[in-house]
Amino acid sequence: MIIHKFLTHFGRYLQLMGRTFSRPERMRMFFKQYVKEMAQLGVDSIGIVLLISFFIGAVICIQIKLNIQSAWMPLWVSGYVTREIMLLEFSSSIMCLILSGKVGSNIASEIGTMRTTQQIDALEIMGVNPASYLILPKVLGLITIMPLLVIFSTVSGIIGAYATAYIGHIITATDLTSGMQHDFTAWFFWMGVIKSLFFAFIISSVSSYYGYSVEGGSVEVGKASTNAVVSCSMLILFSDLFLTQLLS
To answer: 0.70 exceeded by the pTM?
Structure first.
């Protein structure tokens, strides 16, 4: 029963994506929607990304310094570990998990509301492909803006770590800088960017599918929004496992 339900949803999802990635009827209208979605989904999320990353970077640095570092370890360990955690996992995977709650629920509820108010049916009657018109700008917009959010997250986390040095006096700025610069591998940064592109596609496409498939009223829109967030979170965790193994 579970397998049958999964295959049914997966088949409908592939059909919807096939309709989504078709050439837009009006390119001018498409680019207008594309820029709008980048601002709505990405730019509006910069604040929460910076805030969360700042405090996470500070907390990681404090925890490493107080609970792991000892006399047997060099003084720059806290800075090194903070940089690696921010680059490899938090700024890409964990931040996308957080954004799946904000962005994913927004997409699912928006498209679901359009389905329940018959706006999507009106587009079909007018001869417009609603999948391409509504979903494609969201998918491409989030994919475009997500690498910038990863960069902002990493920088904000490092600033948070330095805040512990200058404000909390947990570690000296010199030791923190030595750790940040020690054995830096540029590929780790690109790994986070590449993973974030896949996660952005998962968030935008899966949330759009749940919103597009709503049947019923406002209650079903809420359920679709919840299901979209849960499904996106699970898919991000599964894909993170395979992408990390593939890119490492």
So the answer is: yes
